[in-house]
Amino acid sequence: MEQPVLADHSGRLDGSRQGRPRLGKVLAPYLLSLPAGLWLLALFLVPLVVMLSLSLQSCNTATGACVMTWHWGEFGQELSLYHAQLVNSFYLAGAATLIDLVVSFPIAYWIAFHGGAKKNFFLLMLLVPFFVSFVIRTVVWEFILSDNGVILGGLKHAHLLPQNFHVLATGYAVVAGLAYNYLPFTALPLYVALERIDKRLLDAAYDLYATRREAFARIILPLTVPGLFAAFLLTFVPALGDYVNQQILGGTSNTMIGTVIQNAFLVNLDYAGGSALSAVLMAIALVGIFAYARLLGTRTIEEYL
Amino acid sequence: MSVTVTAPAGPEAPGQAAARRRPRRRWGRVLLPLYSWLIIVYLVLPIAVMVVYSFNRVTTGLPQVSFGWNGFTTKWYREWSNIPELTSSFWLSIRLGLASTLLATVVGTLLALALVRYRPPRFRGKALLEQVLFLNIAAPEIVLGASLLGLFVTINVARGFLTLVLAHVAFSIAYVAVTVRARMAGFDRSLEEAAQDLGAGPWVTFRKITLPLIMPGVLAGALMAFALSIDDFVTSNFVSGSSVPFPVWVYGATRVGIPPQVFVFGTAIFAVGILCAIASIFVGRKKA
User: Please, are residues B135 and A289 in contact by the beta-carbon 8 Å criterion?
Assistant: First the structure.
């Protein structure tokens, strides 16, 4: 995971030139990272602690005022109330992630191995959805999937579908929206992993009489595993907490855990309940995050962004 | 499963053998490109629908985009600013994007410099900092937004433009740092040492040597931060309070039906974004 520690070339040079390193030089790394460190401490780590603490408090839902009561029961209470939504989130986000992995592998493979001079163009095409606001993209899918819209309207007109057929307000619409919105998060890590494979390994395999299938199964696939894991993490975790797709495409059914958290915080002012559910979601995400960090190291995720 | 190795019939030149052994690429020739183009069409389709519907006539009296096609009009482009709340939310998003991009780019670039240049003996806590960055990038956004709202409620900070900027910088720093750091990978320290040998102080060295060299990376990081900020809905929805950024306004409007002007703004943002991306590809090519 860690790179072997090399001699600090520049540090030694400074030392030998000036005898003793100056205070400014010693403090430089800390001064440079101080603003970012403080910002992340105050507005990322502290809020997470506050969230945990809030989940143990009892809140007045009328005023939003909270007092610490070490009420551990909040977790059990929220989970028993909303476990269906949590399970539903797993199903919908899992289905969307699986679809994205299957759908984006061939195109990532094609761009990495056959993209040629147009690689940049194809990568831009993969990123193209990001140039339209996330909420607008989802609204447009509502248009596309609407009961009498471009697709269903045409099929109904041709009597290929029954008149009362609908996709909106079903789990399928939510999965379609999630799969579309998060596809680039899957395709890019896969592309990076495939692109990095040394093509000479394939030549070597063919020299040793491997068939295309064998070369794929024994060379390409194993070398893509880190990229697959990164793609899974970067797709599944955000999809799990998503509520925009569910709210716009899923109607009132198929509620996901994100919707419950959002309502707790913004509609019901139930900060304790919302915090408890957020903490549960974070704990679930942390399982994947820690597994990734242990197996592949924290730096590798940067290569896939 | 094992690769069966059959002995070649006779002595062969290695190059010839490889050429003959390599199975033909039927998949690579026809099916894969076709499939890939279909996926690209799929990715572009909603954007095309958005652009087309920004020209859609409205037949009902209500200012809402209808699902059906009613005929072509450029009315919504002429009346782009007719919905005051939408227009002000758009300008708020622009101001928010600029403010948070400026802050996140400065703070994130400094962090990237620290991470690229120093290793543990001189920079203790580096591994911890890297883990925090990783966690920040990988954590679900709804948790970040909800926990920030919890913090602001607990310490009693009124939600508005200030909390939006604080939150947007918080989720942009890690991306900026990672982007700048990646672009600094091939950075040649000897240029800085040369400047210092010639008597330049640390500030002059930074301004005349370091900054120009890392500028492409810093610009890429800034573009990233701006894109993240202007598109952000989840965090903004938690911490916006009474100042409503563009995505939050659009989300609110979905309940009553969105006005066609939303698609006009969406088309404009898309056009500017694509132009920036193409420009940056060309700039990068010229430099290389």
Answer: yes
Q: Does B220 touch chain A (CB under 8 A)?
A: no
| pLDDT tens track for A251-274 | 777 789 999 999 999 988 888 889
* Euclidean distance between CA atoms A39 and B173, whole angstroms: 9
Residues of B in contact with A210 (CB under 8 A): 3
Kindly state whether residues B70 and B96 are assigned to the same domain.
no
- Say yes or no: B131 contacts chain A, CB-CB below 8 A: yes
Count of domains for chain B: 2
CB-CB: which of A35, A248, A265 is closest to B149? A265
Count of A-B CB contacts under 8 Å? 304
* CATH 1.10.3720.10 fits domain A71-303: yes
Q: What ipTM goes with this model?
A: 0.84
**Residue with more model confidence, B178 or B13:** B178
CATH of residue B185's domain is 1.10.3720.10
Say if residue B249 is in the same domain as residue B143.
Answer: yes
Torsion angle of alpha carbons A34, A38, A39, A44, nearest 10°?
A: 130
Whether residues B54 and B141 share a domain: the answer is: no
Q: How far apart are CA B49 and CA A256, in angstroms?
A: 27
